[in-house]
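ugh ok fine here u go
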Amino acid sequence: AAAESAGDLNGQAAMLIGLAHASHRLCRHEEAVGYLTCAIDKSLQGDWLEGHACAIGNLGIFYDAMGRLDEAAGCYTRAIALARRHGWTMLLAGFLDSLGRHQHVAGNLAAAVDSLTESVRLSEVLGEASTGTAYTLESLAGTYYAMGRLRDALRLAERALDVCRHVGNRSHEITVLSLIATIRADLGHSDQS
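structure:
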């Protein structure tokens, strides 16, 4: 009966996470936060720790979208700590990617490089040549670009392009090609100086 009860709680948590994403897409952000807060509680009660960590990480993403940067950072820190404690490498890579994007937007570019680099490294350890890896490489390239490290940015953007082509993500390939063109144009201008 205890397992059945935990299953019910975890099923409810999963449903709440889905409702949160639907609400977020409809720009009902406070409603989405409410659903995730309930999902965090239900998943913990049901001892579904991976779901618990995912709900916390998603809450960080939603807080970022709402401009609540301090709360977002706290969520990422909690989710990362859970993933490290339990050895969830794939989840950790995703949480670090989210944290790196958050740090970039918050203007902490050096920390963003560290988080995004670790995310890419973990994806490589897992052997993941995925759409997510390409987005992380693009984010890392964009961070280096913002730091004025154009050659590093170009190298990473070209890696992102290779992954996009490998996984067949044509729409993201277009975005990465645009970034590469921008970097190359700026490199051409800086080489002429």
